[in-house]
Amino acid sequence: MDDFDPLLLPEIRHQLLDVKTFLNPQIEKLLDDLGVYIFMIEAFSEWIPYSKTHIHIDAGGTDISKINWIFGGSDSSNQWYQIKSEKSGTASNTTANTGSTRFDINDVEKILYTHPAGPNPFIFQAAIPHKAVLGKERRCCISILPKWKSNNKRLTYSECTNLLQSYLVAGPGLEPRT
Ligand SMILES: [Fe+2]
Question: Domain for residue 81, yes or no?
Fold first, then answer.
């Protein structure tokens, strides 16, 4: 959809977008040639200046990757955390019903990595506790979630970075703590 502006989506923190409607056909073709399809598109909207999201891991904490674009929010960032070893977080659902595990600020040992928002898509490590930190500008993060055509399994972070390293900037290069 050429005229689609993610920043004009309704103020809902986490919603799903229809893959058939919203996936760019060129991206679809590129991924198809690499043996991958997109099964879900998520939109994460943040509109409250200087707010922070919860520290969390996505979808139960298994090693999965996402391909992310940040719209707006040029003064925002994502941060990944080392969690104290005895802490396992609290299961929580999302407004898009995808499941996540949240961590309290007291569960945190230190910040592992800060990734400032930029104009390029990047491969996102969703299995390590992370949060978004907003600046003044509203932002929307569009996440497309890949699976292998051969077995319908989700791509791990390293599978995704290996597959797309000649096309995309990898994210923080963190491996999950499993
Ligand atoms: Fe997340």
Answer: yes
Which tops the pLDDT comparison, 127 or 32?
Answer: 32
Instruction: Specify the pTM.
Output: 0.89
Distance 153 CA to ligand 1 centre (A): 19
**pLDDT, tens digit (0-9, with 9 covering 90-100), for 16-32:** 999 999 999 999 999 99
Q: Which residues surround ligand 1, an ion (CB under 5 A)?
A: 58
> How many angstroms separate the alpha carbon of residue 58 from the centre of ligand 1?
5
pLDDT of residue 87 exceeding 80, the answer is: yes
Instruction: Report the separation in Å between the CA atom of 113 and the middle of ligand 1, taken as the mean of its atom positions.
Output: 14
Decide if 140 is inside a domain. Answer: yes
Per-residue model confidence (pLDDT) at position 178: 42
Ligand 1 geometric centre to CA of 122 (Å): 14
Range(s) of the domain holding residue 71 = 12-170
Task: Check which CATH number belongs to the domain holding 83 and give it.
Answer: 2.60.120
> How many domains is the chain built from?
1
DSSP 23: S
Ligand 1 centroid to residue 3 C-alpha, Å: 26
What's CA 53's distance to the chain center, in Å?
13
Ligand 1 centroid, distance to 66 Cα (angstroms): 9
Say if 87 falls within a structural domain: yes
3-state SS of 92-131?
ECCCCCCCEEEECHHHEEEEEEEEECCCCCEEEECCCCEE
